[in-house]
Amino acid sequence: MMEKLKNIKQWKTTLIGVICYLVGFYYLLEVDNHNLWVFGMLLIFATLMLFSADSLIGSLTKFLKNNEDKKL
After folding, report:
1. Rounded Cα–Cα distance for residues 6 and 53 (Å)
2. Measured between alpha carbons, how far is 15 from 30 in angstroms, rounded to an integer?
3. pLDDT at 1 > cutoff 60
4. Are the C-beta atoms of residues 23 and 70 closer than 8 Å to each other?
5. Which long-range contacts (C-beta less than 8 Å, at least 24 apart) are formed by 6-12?
6. Do 49 and 17 contact (CB within 8 A), yes or no?
7. Which 3-state string (H, E, C) describes 1-69?
8. Which pLDDT tens digit goes with each residue over 21-69?
9. What does the domain layout of the chain look like in residue ranges?
10. What pLDDT is recorded for position 66?
11. What pLDDT score does 48 carry?
């Protein structure tokens, strides 16, 4: 549990998570015909980003730079 809470101090993914929360609630409150699936996915993504480490972004960036064939 403490390992997850330690990752909140890493600012890149925390910032992405907070922005996704704000966008999600803005979408829910301001869009007339809002879809709850979109809101739910934004909240899930924001929560994952909030508690994930910045090494996740580094790993994804390194993978995209080294993957010249663009194959998974």
Report:
1. 9
2. 22
3. no
4. no
5. 7/51, 7/52, 7/53, 7/54, 8/50, 8/51, 10/53, 10/54, 11/54, 12/54, 12/57
6. yes
7. CHHHHHHHHCHHHHHHHHHHHHHHHHHHHHCCCCCHHHHHHHHHHHHHHHHCCCHHHHHHHHHHHHCCC
8. 999 999 989 988 888 898 999 999 898 888 877 777 778 778 778 877 6
9. 2-66
10. 82
11. 87
pTM for this model (two decimals): 0.65
Q: What tokens appear for 23 in the block?
A: 């966008």
Q: Specify the residue for token string 């993504």.
A: 45
**Looking at residue 32, what is its pLDDT?**
87
Cα 49 to Cα 58: distance, rounded to the nearest angstrom = 13
